[in-house]
Design brief:
It holds the Pfam family Sipho_Gp37. The chain is of the alpha+beta class. About 15% of the residues lie in helices and about 40% in strands. The strands form 4 sheets. Strands 1, 2, 3, 4, 5, 6, 7, 13, 14, 18, 19, 20 and 21 form a 13-stranded mixed β-sheet that branches. Strands 9-12-11 form a 3-stranded mixed β-sheet, with helices on one face. The protein has a 3-stranded mixed β-sheet with strand order 16-15-17, covered by helices on one side.
Length: about 375
Amino acid sequence: MRILMRDPTLQTRGPLPYTEARVVMRCNGVHAWEVTVNANSRQWERWRDGWGIVLIEDGVLLSGPAHEITYHADGRSKSRTVTLRGLSEMRHLEGSLVIPDPQSPTGQGAAWTANGPAETVLHRLVREQIGPDAPDFYRVPGLVMEPDRGRGEPVSMSARFTNLLDEVQEQLTAGGLVMDIVQDGRQLVTRFRAPKDLTRRVKLSRVNGGVGEYTLTRTAPTVTEAIAGGQGEGSARVLYRQAVDPGPWGLRTTVFLDRGSSSRSEELQQAVRTALEEGQETASVTFEARSLPHRRFGRDFHLGDRITVDLDHPVTEPVQIAELHWDHTGRTEKLQVGPVADETQLNQASGRLVEWARAASKQLRELQTR
């Protein structure tokens, strides 16, 4: 694994002399990273505020700017270390709003609307809000889009001054796609892909040595009936309802989804389907993963890909979170596989990194700066 320094123009500035590195990667979310650096190294002296990193292992795994720097000096020796913390490029979405007309942010326009294949809708959304077609004061420098291939299930969206990342994640879930933004050369490339079904090809278990310590949790359905409300008031309000059988758990739960900005029945139906899918009975497992031939995370399978973890109860679900750690002994990894992301089982060190990332994300969402 290599870590390169990069300046604000996305020009790489040589290797970062790290002694330890840790990342928490989230499917369709913002990755958090932490790197401990030998501050006595002359290479470190080149670092400047505003720089970031590019982490390379089997290609670019993640990239992003630093948001926090901690300096430490040993009282009995001359050794010094620096700890860098940062977020991945997806933080540009988290710090942005969906503006109905980005060219006129304070205009009284209606909601930003689109419908079609998920990739086409999201390609246009990101392009117009923070990408190449956005006005200068919203455009992220160096951000480009891969060609739209029209993949994913049909989606319909309507948004007005809501968080851009939240809207993107909702449409990715509905459309069955995975998205990330990583540095490639001097550009930040927005990439979409259809996750792979590798449940027969990637099977991890205690028997084949692919699983170490693990925690497996089964959960009853959290939503069995969903009602979405669109535009209108009282008896004139448009409503859509759908219910499913609660199954052997026998627990019925009804939720109401306020979609007051929506006028299309497709948007209400999509919201209900998503709520029922996310609220169904789940089996989720967090485990120490051990690399096997042709079964290595980041090379043979990735976030969003569906794999099989064969334990007390077989789990065949997407990879939601990958917690990776590098030091002088090599790489260790912990994966969470399930229908939704669950960070409760991360280890203590990564837990602190996650809490820091949550605090940084909270500030971004509160300020909504670009």
